[in-house]
Amino acid sequence: MKQELRVAAYAVCVRDGEILLARWVDRDGRKRWTLPGGGMDHGEHPVETAVREIEEETGYVAEPTVLLGIDSIRRGWLRRLGTPGDWQGLRIIYEARITGGELRNEQDGSTDLAAWHPLDSVPDLERVELVDVGLQLWRDRPPVGRSPLTDPGNG
User: From the DSSP assignment, how many helices (H) and strands (E) are in the chain?
Assistant: First the structure.
């Protein structure tokens, strides 16, 4: 079985009762809101990843201020020729504050829109699970940075 690990860094950016989100477009064209962030390049520090990805997806310059937690998800899939695969995503989640730049949409990337959303409107958004995980970590600040939303052994 082919195993694949993807390490990514994301940020929860909240100001004035609103959260900054980017709208992710999957391979099938489905659009869902997510935290700004993405895959870590080889040799890159996760903080640098978060800063780079926030700028790419939203136009903002940001400063990570707190490590909120590390989340891990696993998915099975069928590879070419029908052989099974096991994918794991390791998601490093920071709190970050905006320090500059201007809101804009990503061009030719995995997201097509960036916007601020009132925190109380998040449950009504078409979103990926990572948004809920990030907000829970931001609100609860668990001592070891684990979310029971995706870690059944923690909660």
Answer: 2, 8
